[in-house]
Amino acid sequence: MKTLLVLLAAVAAASAVRISDCDSTATVDFNNIQITGCFKNKRKCFFPKGQDASMSLPFTPHHEVTAVKAKVTAFIGVIPIPFSLPNSDGCVNSSLQCPMPAGQKGVYTSSLPIRKEYPPISLTVRWELLDQNNNKLVCIKFPVQVKN
Ligand SMILES: *[C@@H]1O[C@H](CO)[C@@H](O)[C@H](O)[C@H]1NC(C)=O
Fold it and tell me: Where is the MD-2-related lipid-recognition domain (predicted)?
């Protein structure tokens, strides 16, 4: 019974934020992820066209990290579409200090330009951070509605 309650509480917390984990190996501080247009009481994040969506993502790696590469994929239904970031180097202009020692929290920041020509559709964004060996450090997913 106690286990069930803990489980239900965890599910409730996760569904309020609507940001899900996709096998991160680092510890992601989900309660403190901030994404423009993502509100805890909404089912989706709203990204207005012509603006930048910015993100602040705190995580703690469990090994030393000397390079960080960001990879963003948009899923329209089940179809993955790679999104090219203006700057995919997580160690440059992204708030992180590289190398990151094992066990020390860092905050990755980035922003995505939401171009005017994007269609006003619903999609799922998968944001991954890979380490120097192309291994997954962080993987999060969240639902987005592109707005006119
Ligand atoms: C990082 O920021 C500097 C200063 O704003 C800029 O000149 C440089 O092009 C940026 N580098 C990348 C990879 O975005």
Answer: 19-144
Please give the CATH topology (third level) of the domain spanning 2-147: Immunoglobulin-like (2.60.40)
Contact 87 CB / ligand 1 (< 6 Å): yes
Task: Note the pLDDT tens digit of each residue in 113-126.
Answer: 999 999 999 999 99
Domain range list for the chain = 2-147
Calculate mean pLDDT across residues 26-30. Answer: 97
Is 0.70 surpassed by the pTM of this model? yes
SS3 17: helix
Angstrom CA distances, 127 to 5, 72, 84, stand at 30, 5, 11
Q: Ligand 1: distance of its center to the CA of 87 in Å?
A: 8
